[in-house]
Specification:
The protein is an alpha+beta fold. The protein folds into four domains: about 190 residues, Beta-Lactamase (2-Layer Sandwich); about 130 residues, Beta-Lactamase, CATH 3.30.450; about 140 residues, 2-Layer Sandwich (Alpha-Beta Plaits); about 90 residues, PucR C-terminal helix-turn-helix domain (Arc Repressor Mutant, subunit A, Orthogonal Bundle). A seven-stranded antiparallel sheet has the order 1-5-6-7-2-3-4. A five-stranded antiparallel sheet has the order 9-8-12-11-10, sandwiched between helices. It is elongated and about 145 Å long.
């Protein structure tokens, strides 16, 4: 188990060496070294060195190791007459504490020959046995007295006695090859750095181009949809803009490709868990984050999420979907810059929208209060997209104030609902004491009565959607067709809503035109006078109905609804005509209502309207909000 450290060919055995074959082999290696441009081409060079040294000394196998920054020697390539062994060599590491064979090569900087390598204490014997090594020659690659690598040579599973010539040839060739390998490694590193610099330069150029195009987009007044489309083209990926509530604001595909509905699901993540995680991180770091795919949540794509920030607060998110190539630093840079540009654009749009909303609200206020020059109102209306000579309804809503955030949000929500249901982009709104007013356009070619009833239905549904507790009272004006009409309509609807509030009537939607004579009396009579009038006329009948479970009041309602016709009333109630006549006679006997007199029926209609608004009077004649029964809708048919 002897190991022999061989003398340098400079001092011994020179006559035995045919240097022509060595220089011929080195010439080929040097030629390949000049072509190295990448780590892969370095491996090709090392493979050539291994093959040529084996050919020079008639060896069957070798492996080439290079020194790494950790001081150990890592396997690079191998050569074997039996086939490629690179994959088996690359995981190996030489020079560890137990590897005294390699340590001796490094210390002496000369070839070391180990015979019976499977049992020599200096070798890694398990490795020797696994590779069936008998004798092994370790030849250092030395540059400036530093071992930069080692070539391990053996005759496969056969013993071999190395001649002096073979040993000196191996050392001479290794000395020459070491310089070529060192220079090739430096050239590869330089080429790699050059490639990195070139990529970084290209990235900077692309980022600068993206910055310029996005800046031009904002300066030219492009909207959010166009900016998102530009980002999709720049990134070559689908891009979405989401609000801070993760609601889609804009979506685009590269090169104007069709937008897939599944992207919206993927952007939000069918379950909110991953998105919430990203949102928390984005809010905390104010930087972008990449979400992994989540196929079980309906999200097969990775997502680059960039926050849109205003004064440090997240107001939305720019989401880029990964549909193939992984995200790069350039994608992140463009995404974050795009989020900033989009934030500026959205902020500008919000300011413009707020200014337009303020101008429209101020215009509606001037229209409702009157006293303004008519031509001026016409001109302002045309600028704001409002035709003051087209038919409109003034919708006066009381019971909420837009002075607080909740009231303002309620008004905005109501306006959006009414605009959508009316097929409009927007409707005019303004605040008034105790509530707000909405100006609702009507179709030009539509019967006024039908249009007003349809408007009442839309307003009723919208109010239920935004305030289902019935705390809002609403009065809708007659049709307005000129500036003077709006001021009159506002005055009348305001008085009617004030009357409803005095009567503690909530949750009603009334058309002024349906209120009949009550519309006139409400402006001249007090609440107590109207209540006294209704009580005197109806309390005897209501008392009778409560005590006897009678139907006198309901019969009178049906009688009025059917034009005072006994036959039609009996048919509607499902009773005999004589039953109706008997009930009407009882009404005449118990109260001051005379069903045969028109004036009395008019009084009856007014009294019923009063109790529909305020509730049924108590038996003692005192009606208060606490004792009143819920008011009935004014336009409902009664039988």
């Amino acid at each position: 188990m002897d190991a022999e450290v061989l003398p340098s060919p400079v001092t011994a055995g020179l006559a035995l060496v045919n240097y022509a074959s060595v220089f011929e082999a080195f010439k080929e290696v040097a030629g390949e070294a000049t072509k190295v441009r990448s780590p892969e081409s370095v491996d090709e060079l090392l493979r050539l060195v291994g093959r040529r040294i084996c050919e020079l000394i008639d060896a069957g196998r070798c492996s080439v190791y290079l020194r790494a920054d950790d001081g150990l020697f890592h396997g690079q390539v191998g050569y074997s007459v039996s086939g490629r062994i690179d994959d088996r060599i690359k995981p190996l590491v030489a020079g560890v504490e137990e590897d005294r064979f390699t340590q001796e090569i490094v210390q002496t900087r000369a070839p070391v020959l180990v015979t019976d390598a499977r049992h020599d204490a200096r070798t890694l014997q398990r490795t020797m046995r696994r590779w069936s090594v008998q004798d092994m020659l370790g030849v250092p690659l030395v540059v400036d007295d530093t071992v930069i690598g080692i070539i391990y040579i053996d005759k496969l599973d056969r013993n071999h006695v190395y001649s002096d010539r073979e040993l000196h040839v191996a050392q001479t060739f290794a000395s020459l090859a070491a310089s070529a390998i060192h220079q090739a490694s430096l050239l590869s590193q330089l080429s790699g750095r050059s490639a990195v610099i070139a990529r970084q330069r290209e990235t900077l150029l692309q980022a600068a181009d993206a910055h310029e195009r996005l800046t031009r987009a904002v300066l030219s007044g492009l909207g959010a949809d166009d900016i998102v489309g530009l980002l999709a083209d720049l990134l070559r990926r689908p891009v979405l803009a989401l609000s801070d509530r993760l609601e889609p604001m804009a979506v685009a595909a590269p090169e104007q490709a069709p937008v897939q509905p599944a992207w919206l699901v993927a952007a939000r993540g069918a379950g909110e868990a991953l998105v919430s995680m990203a949102v928390r991180r984005v809010v905390r770091t104010k930087s972008s984050v990449i979400l992994p795919p989540a196929g079980d949540l309906g999200c097969p794509y990775r997502r680059l999420v960039c926050p849109m920030l205003v004064q440090g607060h997240v107001v939305g998110y720019l989401v880029v979907l990964d549909k193939g190539a992984p995200f790069t630093a350039l994608d992140d840079r463009i995404g974050q810059h795009g989020a900033t540009v989009l934030t500026l654009q959205l902020f500008n749009e919000l300011r413009q929208a707020a200014a337009r909303t303020s101008a429209r609200s101020e215009f509606l206020g001037d229209l409702l209060h009157g006293g303004r020059d008519v031509e001026s109102l016409h001109r302002r209306g045309r600028v704001l997209g409002v035709d003051t000579q087209a038919p409109h309804l003034v919708v006066h809503i009381s019971g909420a104030s837009v002075g607080d955030a909740a009231g303002g949000e309620l008004l905005a929500h109501l306006a959006r609902l009414l605009a959508r249901e009316s097929g409009l982009d927007e409707v005019l709104t303004t605040s008034v004491p105790g509530g707000f007013v909405v100006l609702l356009p009507l179709p030009h070619r539509c019967h006024d009565v039908d249009a007003m009833r349809e408007a009442k239905r839309l307003v009723t549904e919208a109010l239920l959607a935004v305030r289902p507790d019935g705390s809002l009272s609403t009065v809708i004006s007659s049709v307005c067709r000129c500036p003077a009409d709006y001021a009159e309509a506002h005055t009348e609807t305001r008085k009617m809503t004030e009357m409803l509030e005095r009567f503690a009537s909530k949750g009603r939607v009334d058309l002024v035109s349906e209120l009949g004579v009550l519309r006139l009396l409400a402006t001249v009579a007090s609440q107590s006078e109207l209540l006294s009038f209704a009580r005197d006329l109806l309390v005897p009948l209501m008392t009778h109905d409560r005590e006897t479970q009678g139907d006198l009041v309901s019969t009178l309602r049906c009688f009025l609804d059917h034009g005072g016709q006994v036959r039609n009333t009996a048919k509607a109630l499902g009773v005999h005509e004589n039953t109706v006549r008997y009930r009407l006679a009882r009404v005449s006997k118990l109260s001051f209502v005379d069903p045969e007199r028109f004036e009395s029926l008019l009084d009856l209609r007014l009294a019923l309207q009063v109790i529909d608004i305020v509730g049924e009077p108590a038996a003692g004649g005192c009606t208060t909000p606490e004792t009143a029964t819920p008011a009935r809708p004014a336009a409902r048919s009664r039988h």
